[in-house]
Amino acid sequence: MENNGLTYKIEGLGLRYDSLVLYNDFEIKIKKGSIVSMLGPSGCGKTTLLNVMGNLAKPDEIKVNDFESLSKSFIFQEHRLLPWKTVYDNIAFVIKNKFEEKQIKESVYEYLRQVELLDFKDYYPGELSGGMKQRVAIARAFVYPSDVLVMDEPFKGLDIRTKRVVMETFIKAWEKDKRTVVFVTHDVEEAVRLGDEIHILEGPPVKVVEKVSTNGVFRDMRVETPEFRNLLSRLKCLLDGVCQVLGGTGESDED
Amino acid sequence: MVSGLISSEIIFPSPFSVFKGLLFIVREQYFWISVLSTVKRGLLGIFISLFSGCALGVFAGLKKGGRVFLSPYVSLIRTTPVVVLILIALIWMADDFVPVFISFLISFPIIYTNTVQGIIQVDKSLVDMAKVYGVGKGRILKEIYLPSISAYLTAGVSTAMGIGWKAVIAAEILSQPKYSIGTRLIEAKIYLEIDRVFAWALVAVALSFIFDNLVRIVEKRTMKWKTMD
Predict the structure, then answer these.
(1) Order of strands across the sheet with A251-252?
(2) Beta bridge partner(s), residue A52
(3) What is the ipTM of this complex?
(4) Residue A251: strand, helix, or coil
(5) Residues A196, A181: contact at Cβ < 8 Å?
(6) Residues of B with CB below 8 A from A72's CB?
(7) Cβ atoms of B45 and B101 closer than 8 Å
(8) How confident is the model at residue A149 (pLDDT cuts 50, 70, 90)?
(9) Please, are residues B82 and B102 in contact by the beta-carbon 8 Å criterion?
(10) Which of residues 139 through 158 in chain B touch A, CB cutoff 8 A?
(11) Which among B132, B135, B224 has CB closest to A74?
């Protein structure tokens, strides 16, 4: 699943909630093998877009939806682990009918090692911290053989230190197979740290007001360059709607 | 104390007499077979209600229409006095099966209602998670719904057993199958062997206590994860 320049597309998306027009002829292209951050204020309709991609919401109209036929794995805002299953069983749960027992064990162990929780494989979710639970959710998402990984504010509610650890764990797991990731957040730093591309959304009706490409140069959490800080403040500014696009480190490209 | 105040072994025997009566009935030829027959009837009724209550409870919990349809029937069973149910059962079926039927009728509404509650309370976000990962309906039922309702179910079984034993013995007193605690109780009463009436009552209480604790042990073992939250 290397980045070969191909894209997954949604075109002509229309969706209404009663009289509220959430999407009107909306389109988006996601580069295969990249992490695309969808950055927008709370309540602008970001999660609905993920739900359309994940076949959880039915649009009123849509011309092209490449995501419909793709297999997807999810990391939700809440860990959504089954409290009666151990860490191992929670991860194995999603691939139980897909592989042989031996392969399931190998895959689960591999990703448990990846998220540094192999020693906790027999623990129940109730025995883990919030950050550990989210790392289990990351392992569960990666162990599933999906074309696209969809994330809905997966770091929300974690304290700064835990968030950093979980994000680093995610990057480490992602770098192994460079799966296509669509990531929704309202946190500018998360979007910039993880994304190869950042789509800034505004709405409703939702539209992409700007697209910034960073090619993932800010993924090293220890580095805080002036370029990084400039981009952060520029995007924060843009998101708050209080200033015009001022230019900056990330190349802004129009589609 | 009460026995001391009344000082009549016929009305209220002393603890010593009850103990002696207990030793006597334990050595009786029909003691174990009577106890085991009562246990068998009680458990059979509870198992039938566990399967039917669980199956219909899951259906009614998932489908509102099913809930509406079953509601009047369950209410009817719940509100009809036990003694009326026993009398009807006596007309309809063999003496031996009456206590099983009563145990079932008493337990069913409790287990059904608890199952419905459990299904309604299932965390839907876990079901959505399983759906987006392509987990089939059968596995969602087995691996999400059933574990979710297990706490409601064990609470239901525990309550059903508490009430069920009393109803089974009441049914046995009226139907008088050959081997049963109820039949032994009524015989002791007819022959004015009050110490044995109390002794058999003690056996019934002990049975209830043992099975209640067994349910708790099963609950602890199967829901180890609950204590870790």
Answers:
(1) A72-75, A148-152, A180-185, A35-39, A197-202, A207-213, A251-252
(2) none
(3) 0.82
(4) strand
(5) no
(6) 132
(7) yes
(8) very high
(9) yes
(10) 139, 143-144, 147, 150
(11) B132
For residue range B94-114, what is the model confidence (pLDDT) as tens digits? 888 888 988 898 899 999 999
Cα separation, B41 vs B32, whole angstroms: 14
Say if the Cβ atoms of A56 and B130 lie within 8 Å: no
* B225/A144 touch (CB, cutoff 8 Å), yes or no: no
> Comparing B188 with B143, which gets the higher pLDDT?
B143
Point out the residue among B128, B133, B225 whose CB comes nearest to the CB of A83: B225
Give me the pLDDT at residue A243, please. Answer: 43
Going by C-beta distance under 8 Å and a sequence separation of 6 or more, which residues neighbour residue A116? A135, A169
> Which residues of chain B are within 8 Å of residue A104 when distances are taken between CB atoms?
none
- Residue A253: per-residue pLDDT: 44
Region B46-62: what's the mean pLDDT?
A: 92
- Chain-centre distance for alpha carbon B120: 24
B130: chain A residues, CB-CB within 8 Å: 93-94
In this complex, the residue of B128, B144, B228 whose CB is nearest that of residue A82 is B144
A72–B132 C-beta distance less than 8 A: yes
Amino acid identity, position B47 = F
Of the ranges A155-159, B50-54, B149-153, the best mean pLDDT one: B50-54
Q: What is the mean pLDDT of chain A?
A: 85
Q: Closest partner residue to B128 among A56, A93, A126, by Cβ?
A: A56
The model's confidence at residue A124, banded by pLDDT at 50, 70 and 90, is very high
